[in-house]
């Protein structure tokens, strides 16, 4: 029996690692969409960084939800509830990035583009854990 349990734990670790890899790859497409939209809205259209961030992040969240529902967590049930949860988790990224803008851009004068790029790995890690445990549980 202990060997069977060890095999189950190993299989779960492999499954989690596979999900993390797919989540990261899909996240890359969402990050790219988010960043391109942010740069266009903020630098080209002249939109304030907070508004540009809210719009660009929403685009990335929607992209990532669709792809993660299909390929990472393979869950297609309760789609509206799952999207609302996924979006709520996505809002944590907006809030975290907002706070980073306040500290690093507004208070310390760093370029908003650098702060946006620097926030992405932290936001990705936080959201994977929350989405795996809540949105797609």
Automatic annotation (TrEMBL):
Topological type in the membrane: Multi-pass membrane protein
A Pfam family assignment: GtrA_DPMS_TM
Residues passing through the membrane, by range: 20-45, 51-71, 83-104
Localization in the cell: Membrane
Recorded superkingdom: Bacteria
GtrA/DPMS transmembrane domain location: 22-136
Biological processes annotated in GO: polysaccharide biosynthetic process
Annotated Gene Ontology cellular component terms: plasma membrane
Keywords assigned by UniProt, alphabetized: Membrane, Transmembrane, Transmembrane helix
Positions in coiled-coil regions: none
Similarity comment: Belongs to the GtrA family.
Name of the protein in question: GtrA family protein
Source organism of the structure: Streptomyces himalayensis subsp. aureolus
